[in-house]
């Protein structure tokens, strides 16, 4: 399965990174920084519906999404268009992301930023803090409940939020047991890349209301977005469609207006 391949490659990457900067060093450096203020989840809590816009050059399911990829410009456009948070892929091999891209964007936008990587080692959490992230992604199928709990507590100590990604009821229960405060349901099946928006719609009822719920992936248009909001999403994570939208401001505005109308 692709996820296993990516996770294995990530393990190698982290081993290489540790040769350059040791775990002890990243821990010390991260602890010297001012504690974060959980800006990512504060933003999600404050809004009725938040839009998390993703900066993504490529993906294993879609190949190249943006050939020229002016990532700072894209992130600025997101901010100007009314995005609430920004997600940046840093996985290099399949998503063609990098830490440098993340850092550059961090310097140029004020929005809370999610570092989207395949977290399999606590090293990456400290690294995320050093990159200026406000949140990290934890994927349930890569981490057991005990490890999830440990990683959430490391994030808590640094003031970082965690987006805990689940695909099925077992993983949702694991996320809840681990104390997740934000759970994302990925509508894309990482085994065969099929997209089914009803995955997050069906799983919504298994997530307590005090946990923030993010519907992720495969949101292609305003109608998709509105049906997810109607089914109780607190936030939407949109990558490809947002990258391609020629009028990002109108796209975000229409989603927010449509979502608000549906609450009446
Ligand atoms: O481009 P999309 O279909 O709108 O999807 C965005 C985001 O949800 C997707 O990139 C994603 C969701 N979970 C992930 C985990 C790892 C890498 C990527 C992802």
TrEMBL record:
Residues of the Indole-3-glycerol phosphate synthase domain: 3-254
UniProt keyword annotations, A-Z: Amino-acid biosynthesis, Aromatic amino acid biosynthesis, Decarboxylase, Lyase, Tryptophan biosynthesis
Catalytic function, reaction form: 1-(2-carboxyphenylamino)-1-deoxy-D-ribulose 5-phosphate + H(+) = (1S,2R)-1-C-(indol-3-yl)glycerol 3-phosphate + CO2 + H2O
Domain of life: Bacteria
Example of a GO MF term: indole-3-glycerol-phosphate synthase activity
Pfam families documented for this protein: IGPS (PF00218)
Family affiliation: Belongs to the TrpC family.
This protein's name: Indole-3-glycerol phosphate synthase
Name of the gene this protein is made from: trpC
């Amino acid at each position: 399965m692709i996820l296993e391949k990516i996770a294995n490659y990530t393990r190698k990457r982290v081993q290489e990174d540790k040769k350059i900067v040791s775990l002890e060093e990243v821990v010390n450096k991260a602890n010297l920084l001012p504690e974060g203020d959980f800006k990512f989840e504060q933003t999600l809590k404050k809004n009725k519906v938040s839009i998390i816009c993703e900066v993504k050059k490529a993906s294993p399911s879609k190949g190249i999404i943006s050939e020229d990829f002016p990532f700072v410009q894209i992130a600025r456009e997101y901010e100007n268009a009314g995005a609430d948070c920004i997600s940046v892929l840093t996985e290099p091999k399949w998503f063609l992301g990098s830490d440098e891209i993340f850092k550059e964007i961090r310097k140029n936008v004020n929005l809370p930023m999610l570092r989207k990587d395949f977290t399999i080692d606590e090293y990456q959490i400290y690294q995320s803090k050093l990159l200026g992230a406000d949140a990290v992604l934890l994927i349930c199928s890569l981490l057991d409940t005990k490890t999830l709990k440990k990683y959430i507590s490391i994030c808590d100590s640094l003031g970082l939020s965690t987006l805990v990604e689940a695909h099925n009821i077992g993983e949702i229960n694991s996320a809840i047991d681990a104390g997740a405060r934000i759970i994302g349901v990925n509508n894309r099946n990482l085994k065969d890349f099929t997209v089914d928006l009803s995955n997050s719609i069906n799983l919504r009822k298994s997530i307590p209301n005090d946990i923030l719920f993010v519907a992720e992936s495969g949101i292609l248009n305003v109608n998709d977005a509105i049906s997810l909001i109607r089914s109780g999403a607190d936030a939407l994570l949109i990558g490809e469609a947002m990258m391609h939208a020629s009028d990002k401001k109108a796209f975000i505005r229409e989603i927010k207006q449509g979502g608000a109308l549906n609450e009446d």
